Amino acid sequence: GAVVSQHPSRVICKSGTSVKIECRSLDFQATTMFWYRQFPKQSLMLMATSNEGSKATYEQGVEKDKFLINHASLTLSTLTVTSAHPEDSSFYICSAQLRGLETQYFGPGTRLLVL
Amino acid sequence: LAKITQPISMDSYEGQEVNITCSHNNIATNDYITWYQQFPSQGPRFIIQGYKTKVTNEVASLFIPADRKSSTLSLPRVSLSDTAVYYCLVGDPRGSTLGRLYFGRGTQLTVWP
User: Are residues B93 and A106, on separate chains, in Cβ contact within 8 Å?
Assistant: First the structure.
């Protein structure tokens, strides 16, 4: 149980294009999903908190117009990196949490490379 | 937010028990302590979670003293495949932070043959 998937696992795109990453909780309903970014040799950095049916809450310094988050259902959240640039190249990881439980379950991550 | 301190790195040999201690002096009353394991290019994997005393599951034990200002993750008889980064996190899923997790640098555990 408690499986979280991400799609795609890796993506290469040209500078200026937009990329959508999906995060799904496969066997439970996640009222809250979180998005993280991780650069090489560094720790995970929380980007935003996504609650089903409401606007995402972004961490300080994260541009909400750059990183669009949609949490349309209890099992799906999407992160869209708009007008991606090489500095957006990173490892993006989502996690999902069921209300009332204290544990977050993480997806396998998506490697984004912007050329 | 609780300030977390854990060793940057640890080394061990196969078959040994490894204890990684995490300091969280200003842990709040409702905070839980959670440990995650991360391999390169993978998402963190949940290991264990606790609030107080001792918690044990099939892969690890978590020891939390009465003052809760520290916690120790114990990995029995490690193998080469336990080489990974281990993160100690403190948070309250129902409180003001609404479950947001802030990762520190973690502890790089290297297991040698």
Answer: no
